Structure prediction request, 221 residues.
Amino acid sequence: MVKFMDILKESDDNIFIPRRTKEEKDKKFLFRTYRILLNYIKNGSQGNLHLKDSSIEFLPKNLTRVNGDLMLIECENLKSLPNNLTVNGDVVLYRTKNLKGLPGGLKVKGSLHLLDISITELPQDLEVGNTINLSGSLIKKLPENLIVNGKLNLEDCKKIRSLPNGLKVRGTLDLRDTNITKLPPDLEVEEALVLYRTPLSNLSINKIREMVPKLRANIYS
Prediction:
């Protein structure tokens, strides 16, 4: 039988140290979170893992697989996720303000949604099976040779100025309300390229196609 203290011993990070221990409400909620994580790992990480408004700082390092969706909503003290984590569903991170980066070796079989968070770069070895949704985020840089099997949503990402070489998007590439001024010549987009309210929207369709010879997608500017 897996015991709660055994899980703590397997991780170098004690994830169960609350910042606001003086508040009984927080203590009670943290204990509830302990039980959720304990039971989830004990049951073989089956199904979705959904934490909302928790004050945990770390997830346990021995949580290497989520056999469903991983949803971390308004966990504002969360600082990191385990390395080499595989999620068989979607990953949704919303308002996790202290999470500065994604872990190495992260594999997301579904879609990745990073919403209202502080992450500015994605790891080079990131694997995502479907859509990457970064709408309104602080993202500044994408990995070289990134392959997106669904839609890549960069709408309203004001910090990003350019796209990486080798970017392939098998769905729609949405660049609305960004400050991107040029496109890499080897960019590949299969469905649609959306350029509304960008510096590129002033260019003609023909000019954009000259800039990106491999582009076969419909262009909306």
Summary: The chain has three helices and 16 strands. Confidence is low (pLDDT under 50) at residues 1-13. The CA atoms of residues 195 and 221 lie 5 Å apart.
